[in-house]
Structure prediction request, 66 residues.
Amino acid sequence: MISSATKNAGTLVLEKTKEEILHERILELREKIHSEEYLDSAIQRIAYVISTKLVENPEELKLREQ
Prediction:
């Protein structure tokens, strides 16, 4: 019989292992999302892309009627 403490210890080791395996880029982005400046910039880029799509091809972004 395995105690719950042993099960929890095993889980913690697995989670740490998964974290260590993450690609450097993912870890970098995790840090960036806590930056207000980065988020503001990302939102502006998304808004720019959507605005450009609306101007170039408004039909592409039209809501579908159900």
Q: What stands out?
A: The chain has a mean pLDDT of 75. The helical segments are 4-21, 24-32, 36-56. Residues 3 and 42 are 46 Å apart (CA to CA). DSSP finds three helices and no strands in the chain.
